[in-house]
Write a structure and sequence with these properties.
There is one protein chain. Helices cover 29% and strands 21% of the residues. The longest helix has 22 residues. With 452 residues, it is α/β, with parallel strands linked by helices. Strands 3, 13, 14, 15, 16, 17, 18, 19 and 20 form a nine-stranded mixed sheet that branches. It has an eight-stranded parallel barrel with strand order 4-5-6-7-8-10-11-12, surrounded by seven helices. Strands 1-2 form a two-stranded antiparallel sheet. It binds pyridoxal-5'-phosphate. The site of pyridoxal-5'-phosphate has 18 residues, from α11.
């Protein structure tokens, strides 16, 4: 047996082996390996901190989501939401699994094109598409999801000039019983804006209305909301058929299914309370199948699920810098990664595991990052075994939005590695260097020299 490290004695109320409401406290299990790779060796090889993506977990997630939807509805197509994690290696795993691309900017659009996604399999969402973006999407036969009337008018004008009839969908927002309502994107269902847009598109005869889209929120915990949204879009599609004898070929339900993270202030851990993807699938497919479509004319179901497919495939590994006592007696542990690379720590209580074996003693503590900023708090309160300088930790469920939203601030951004199906680790983004950050800076001549 390996010799345990010395731990200083500690006096505190006993809570050894206490169960929480859902069983034993799994947060206290040491995580020494990820997909067979030793955490400490990964840190030694690639530096600390380090993002790790599990190829196996991503593939498992998308395969299982596809299975869950395809067994409930006959025509399903996933599109990978680039903004959730647009590292090319991650996108390409999804593309290999059959996912199209869902993008919300020209930058993401170009990434999808460079990744080799056929342009007619790129869904272009978002409120900010320039004329140039629209012209390119029309030329490329991409699916353009219209967000507002100004965009609709520009599209009518541009497609007229180009003598091409682009394939479009409108984004629809609606009351699904979840408040505050996401009504800033797209056209509202209840007040008639959605119909207004549909009528204008069909009257223009310049655009080919092929789809209806919604993305009702993010980190949604109620599957029923998707049932309501799907029913409303299906109702629109069936009414379009009645009024204009035109088939809508797809209904796109967007993303937003919650991942297993725990929201701050939540009374239950995410892993115990977040609905399974099958519950979302059940709600959506039942609504669509019960809406009254002719079986031969059932629309495709598109899904732009992001976080629920990638959050648990991402880990952040880091190292303890030091410990101190705060003035109120609490233990504070300082880690080598901050909120600039773990943006989601502003709204999640991330699960954090020690990366080495430890005794049963735990103590409430605050986890700080290394930034010289008071807001740099990774966990406001977490019960962990005493961690010492040089010990390592693993942060779970960080695959969604942290890498895309990370910023270079005070420290440089770390490497990202992917562990492949054979258990080999590959760098998929190099750690940042000073020259990377300064690459686009320019010095004015008269600022070149100084004497101190
Ligand atoms: C962000 C976004 C998604 C993905 O959302 P998740 O919460 O990551 O599932 C899908 N569609 C659109 C239009 C989005 O803006």
């Amino acid at each position: 047996m390996e010799k345990k490290q010395y731990e200083r004695p500690l006096i505190k109320p006993l809570n050894n082996g206490l169960m929480n409401k859902f069983g034993t406290r799994t947060e206290y299990t040491a995580i020494t390996n990820i997909d067979g790779k030793n955490v400490k060796e990964l840190l030694k090889e690639f530096g600390s901190p380090l993002f790790v993506m599990s190829e196996r977990k991503i593939r498992d997630n998308i395969r299982s989501a596809k299975r869950v939807f395809e067994t409930r509805y006959p025509k399903v197509q996933f599109a990978w939401s680039y903004k959730t994690n647009y590292l090319n290696a991650v996108c390409k795993v999804f593309h290999q699994e059959g996912s199209w691309a869902e993008v919300v900017s020209r930058f993401e659009y170009e990434k999808a094109v460079n990744n080799g996604v056929p342009t007619n399999k790129i869904i272009f969402n978002g409120p900010d598409k320039t004329d140039d973006d629209l012209v390119l999407s029309i030329k490329n036969d991409s699916l353009i999801h219209i967000d507002h009337l100004d965009e609709l008018y520009r599209l009518i004008e541009l497609s007229g000039e180009m003598h091409k009839k682009p394939r479009v969908a409108i984004r629809v927002n609606m009351d699904t019983g979840i408040y505050p309502m996401w009504d800033r994107f797209g056209f509202n269902y209840e007040n008639g804006q959605a119909w207004d847009a549909i009528n204008k598109i069909i009257a223009s005869d310049k655009l080919n209305l092929v789809g209806l889209h919604c993305h009702i929120g993010t980190y949604m915990l109620a599957a029923s909301a998707y049932g309501i949204a799907a029913a409303k879009l299906a109702e629109l599609a069936i009414s379009i058929k009645k009024r204009y004898n035109q088939n809508i070929s797809y209904i796109d339900m967007g993303g937003g299914f919650a991942s297993k993270n725990t929201l701050k202030g939540a009374t239950h851990l995410g892993v115990d309370s977040v609905p399974e993807i099958s519950e979302f699938a059940e709600a959506i497919s039942s609504s669509l199948l019960n809406a009254g479509f002719d079986n031969a004319e059932l629309p495709y179901l598109y899904l732009e699920t992001g976080r629920a497919l990638v959050d648990d495939a991402g880990f952040l590994l880091g190292t303890v810098i030091s410990n101190k006592r705060l003035s109120d007696g609490r233990r504070a542990t300082i880690l080598d990664f901050g909120v600039n690379i773990l943006f989601t720590s502003f709204w999640y209580d991330h699960k954090i595991s020690p990366a080495q074996e430890f005794s049963f003693n735990t103590e409430d503590c605050v986890l700080y990052g290394p930034l010289c900023m008071n807001i740099d708090v990774i966990r406001e309160n977490v019960s962990l075994p005493p961690l010492n300088n040089g010990d390592n930790v693993v942060v779970h469920y960080v695959g969604a939005y942290n890498i895309t939203q990370s910023m270079q601030f005070i420290t440089l951004r770390p490497s990202v590695v992917m562990i492949d199906l054979k258990g080999d680790a590959h760098v998929i983004r190099e750690k940042e260097s000073v020259s990377d950050v300064e690459k686009n800076e320019r010095i004015i001549d008269h600022l070149e020299k100084f004497k101190l």
